[in-house]
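hi support,

uploading two proteins for the ticket. first:
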Amino acid sequence: MALTPYQQELRDRVLAAEVVPAPEPWREVGRGTVPVGGLLGIGFAVHPDTGHDLVLTVSSSGHGLFDAVTGEKLEREYDPEQDPDGPDLRCPGIGPVADVLIPVAGLWGGGLHTGTDDGWRTDVASPEWPHHRVLLIGGAEPARGGRHGETWWHVLHASWSTFRAAGFSPSGRTLAVATSSDLTLWTRSRPGS
């Protein structure tokens, strides 16, 4: 099926966009990408003491819990009781959120928030499938004439491993991208900042 001229122009714009750092107020967490071999999915929770967003990783070798502000691994469960289950793909938390059932998105399906209350959005484009490009959008989208590096940013190009999920935490303070081999996080102090 041939692309329309409009579709071809949009595809070309996304393909030409270099990976760039996320704009202020976003900052990449820690030293960037965290290796998580065999990553299958991720979900969000909130630390009961610090209020930080937490990211639960579900992998072929167990579950991990990361602080989304510092990037620190807080907990590791090598032999979890269960993987995501039920219609909302919930998974038992570990460590400080052991009593919480956490919805997970990834290989099994599910989804993360694609927008925040104050207008940030994320989109995943695959003009060269199976490679995925994660776009952070803070203004006009590429399809509506927005400019790369001004209203939208190509923040991650998943060409080295299989894309699993991308999206925001419910608080809107964290953006996470999961592939089959790693987790990448961006954070900001609070929505509206």
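and the second one:
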Amino acid sequence: MRLKDSASQIMQKYSIFFVLLVMILISMTMNDNFFSPGNLTNIGRQLAVATILAYGEMLLIISGMLDLSAGAVLALSGVLSVSFYKTTGSLLGAFLVAIVVAVACNIVNAFFVANCKMPAFIVTLAMTMAARGLALMYTQGQNILQIGDYKVFGQGKLTDVPFLEKMTFLDSVPIPIVFLILITIIIWYVLNHTKFGRSLYAIGGNEEAAIASGINVISSKYKAFIINGILVGIAGILFMSRVNAGLPNGAVGYEMEGLTAAIVGGTSFSGGVGTTLGTLVGSFIIGCLNNIMNLQSVDSYVQQVVKGGIIVAAVLYDLKFKNKKSVKVILGNKEKKNTEKMN
């Protein structure tokens, strides 16, 4: 019985890695170009935006919230950033504009969720419409073209950075991948080695218990949304620079890409459960799936159906795991009580 339980625990813990391995093997079998340097670089660039968004969604879901406005806020912060660069020529200023705009939108979300006790689903859905509308109003529904050196964020390599141009060994390292690696390390550290990270798990697991234990729930929710805003702003910069334009209608549905990656990676919609590594692997699985479907020329509508099925399957698996865990706890408590009575 113990051996069976151990095998079940190992499967629950490492199943996501097994799925990724199977996905890679299938992709290699279906298309010889999957492991070509060009295709892998393309996957990396695409994964950077989706994974960064997924980290923000993961933080919010762990704490019992979510963000449906990520794609729209990404578009708003991105087009304002591109516009600022075209006006001033400052890459640093454009970078900061995207961050400030996305954080401001998320602070508004945090206010209604944390202070007004409104459901995050409703608040962020409203922000989706507001942010998208503002982006379209600002640009009059037109794309911002000819963005010049702004594209270095999403298309450049490390040797494009002024003080690194002579380091030729870095010529094959795309800048979006560097952003992704740095953000992954930071998010992992925040979740695993800070008081704030532990508070998110506590709030998502049981908010009333978290309040009773002295955790400032409102402050933690604000911080979670602010970090999400920073990540959405960076994703906006990478997205607009990768497509080489400011698109007010861009990134539609990207919040679902982030949510899917987080859920597939083991983040529980019930709150209190999720890991940085799991979300990263979940994003790789979705990225590999998207890439192989594109290489095989699968219809885009079919791709949406497949992704929807993956979300349902991941949530069902999460619910099944939760129910098993609850049954084990209940049975364990009963056995303990029976033992105490006999003694």
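thanks. also noticed: Confidence is low (pLDDT under 50) at residues 325-339.
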